[in-house]
Amino acid sequence: MHALFWNLRGFGHDGRRRQLIDYMRVEAIDVVAIQETMCTEFSLVELERLSRHLFAWHWLPSSGVTGHSGGILLGVKDATFEVGSMDRGTHFVSMEVWERDVNFKWEIIVVYGPADHSRSAAFLAELHAKISSATLLVVVGGDFNLLRSAEEKNNSRVDLAGMRRFNDWVADPGLRELDRVGARFT
Q1: pLDDT tens, residue by residue, 22-36
Q2: In-domain check, residue 15
Q3: Cβ contact 88:94 at 8 Å
Q4: From CA 80, how far away is CA 32, in angstroms rounded?
């Protein structure tokens, strides 16, 4: 099973959409989780063009809450997963899925955290409530717009207190970070 979590910075840009289509084909993606779509809605036709495979889709539109950016798109390959319930909040979308090949149920939660750090506490509280209420194992991914270590920053301006709060938040529900493959910075 292959999953792609990507801050695309604009689903409407033809070049980025072409990159997404190519990557989904070459890497045989089963889960696609796009953050910062900058879209208020999607048509079934444009979603069907992303892959030659059938996908189930769920999204959170970009809105005034997050400015011109924002928006999340989550899709799972129909041949790999059966979709149960779906949910969304201000900063996340989720799907409960049953992975057919391994007979396993889990929940995918995709986040796009606010770049305005004055809203980070509310974002983390919403996400904590979602994770705490989960009845299945969860995979949480996306763009938190928060740092766990100074090495994640591409400059020297680091908020150590904010980093400590985020690491404490990650530890509280017992989340574990998976190693990243690909670009170091989104």
Answers
A1: 999 999 999 999 999
A2: yes
A3: yes
A4: 12
